[in-house]
Write a structure and sequence with these properties.
The protein is of the alpha/beta class. The chain contains 12 helices and 10 strands. The radius of gyration is 21 Å and the shape is globular.
Length: 318
């Protein structure tokens, strides 16, 4: 399969890493960022970056590039407006941490027929171009959406980019994705903020004694608040459900501690759950190709069970 050029809109940690990883993977790639100061040094480092969105999208339209939206959710609508005006026929994906809300925005701008959602499950507590790393996605999971109506050829292009960036692909439907990441990504951010707040609200001695468990448990609390708010608030329904469940678990643990002086139930169940995570095994999804009969359903079922895609076969001619 001929690999399309890549146009990345938004060059923070994730978008900048996509641009760098795509170039390292042999792709022709260029990117846009609103602020020149935020990408200072990118051109000197050999990357093709610009602050002129119209010019970048015009180039993408002429080259038939795969466009990657890599801005926070509050900025997605403005980016889609520009795409609808300057490159409405290009294949389109994103790396935003929620999928259903992005898909709805894409639909409002009439771009759904060329859109396949994406979300690399990778990141750090740092942000911006200076934190970007072409190795960020190495062996990471990259979600590629299998919602109703996705075009199999666009799906191939998006999955191919993820593989070229070093990831494995997990095919997931948008709603399922959002419910899952509420539990394993967005809720941990809120819990980290809570741990940091409780630790800091004690005496100075508490912070003086803080070591590995506090450091690791609060690591993502150092993420820029605006970024945390953007991802959590865009997934408010699923995150509220996960937060309710966490509060219920903690309430029962408090009751057991206050009544019996014991933490046995929570600690035992939590240790077992962590073991399940450590023992989780991926398996390779094979024998399914985009465009096959019920390919989306088959991919989605395999992804739900822990399957990953490590290669995409070239499409048959014609």
């Amino acid at each position: 399969m001929t690999t399309a050029p890549v146009c990345v809109l938004g060059l923070g940690l994730i978008g900048g890493s996509v641009l760098q990883a795509a170039v390292r993977g042999g792709r022709i790639a260029w990117g846009y960022n609103r602020s020149a100061d935020a990408i200072a040094g990118s051109a000197e480092a050999g990357y093709d970056t610009d602050t002129d969105l119209t010019a970048v999208l015009t180039r993408a339209a002429e080259a038939g590039a795969l466009i990657v939206i890599a801005v926070p959710m509050p900025a997605v609508d403005a980016i889609l407006a520009a795409i609808a005006e300057h490159a409405p026929n290009n294949a389109l994906t994103d790396v935003v941490s929620v999928k259903a809300e992005v898909a709805a925005a894409v639909s409002r701008w009439g771009l759904s027929s060329r859109y396949v959602g994406g979300h690399p499950m990778a990141g750090t507590d740092q942000s911006g171009w200076s934190a970007a790393d072409p190795e960020l996605f190495r062996d990471a999971v990259w979600v590629v959406g299998v919602d109703d109506g996705v075009d199999p050829q666009v799906w191939r292009e998006v999955a191919s980019l993820a593989l070229d960036c070093g990831s494995v692909v997990v095919p997931v439907e948008s709603g399922e994705h959002d419910r899952a990441v509420a539990r394993i990504s967005h809720l941990p951010h809120l819990l980290a903020e809570t741990l940091a707040l409780v630790g800091a609200s004690g005496s100075p001695l508490a912070l003086s004694l803080a070591a590995g468990s506090f450091r690791d448990g609060t690591r993502v609390a150092s993420t820029a608040p605006a970024l945390v708010r953007a991802m959590c608030e865009a997934n408010s329904v699923a995150l509220t459900d996960a937060l309710d469940e966490a509060l219920d678990v903690l309430t029962r643990a408090r009751e057991e501690l206050a009544t019996d002086g014991s933490t046995r139930t929570l600690v035992t169940a939590g240790h077992r759950a962590r073991t399940l995570y450590e023992e989780h095994q991926r398996f390779d999804i094979t024998g399914i190709e985009p465009g096959d009969d019920q390919w989306r359903e088959k991919f989605g079922s395999a992804g739900r069970k822990g399957g990953v895609i490590r290669q995409i076969r070239s499409a048959s001619p014609g």
